[in-house]
Amino acid sequence: MKLLIVNPNTSSAMTDGIAQAAREVAAAGTQIVAVNPSFGPLSIEGQYDEAFAAAGVAEQVRLACSGAEGQPDGVVIACFGDPGLDAAREATDAPVLGIAEAAFHAASMLATGFSVVTTMTRTCIIAEHLVHKYGFERRCRGIHGTDIPVLALESAGPEMLAQIEAASREALRRDRSGAIVLGCAGMAALTRELQQRLGVPVIDGVSAAVKFAESLAALGLRTSKHGDYATPLPKRYTGWAQRFGW
Ligand code: 2AL
Hints:
246 residues; binds 1-(2,5-dioxo-2,5-dihydro-1H-imidazol-4-yl)urea; alpha/beta; globular; 8 helices
């Protein structure tokens, strides 16, 4: 099967890292195709960034699903704000997974409560909105910023790992949580080491979403086109968005 992994930011280095994390957990027969938008912010660290990133996700899903090459069997949106998730579900009937949504589900099956440890403190509100949107208020016990910029994760060394470890320990203690959800796709490579050090489940949304997408596709399940996720209505888009009209 083919999984399309969309990194919503335009850092190709981060796209490569996300592809690697996805390939490490993908089944032998799963082809990982990782892309990022042709425009938009290099990193997503606020709601202004996210507005453009959502359009970039729509661009890439549209491109992949209308191309001559085979349609993806599943799509993963690999940014913790899940930008453009609902739009992508309208644009395709392949299952579409956001990494925050996937990580919240996985964490809830492993512990009674989890904490999110993320990048810039200002992004905590985005995660908080998603916790409410997805109905995880009873499971998410806290969201913690480290003030590590997203692009700094591309060159994460021992000091950054220690900082995320310390924030996670504090979150587990303060929130009485049993699991840590990593709040950025750029943290994927740190997951195994952190889990070993912390001794609790550490969930990276990229790997969780890849395995959930594989499972849904293997079960023959598709995004419902009945009602809210129906295909967009045909209409003309104007200005710079002209090519996005259905
Ligand atoms: C993210 C992420 O996963 N990618 C990105 O650019 N920003 N999330 C975050 N909380 O910083």
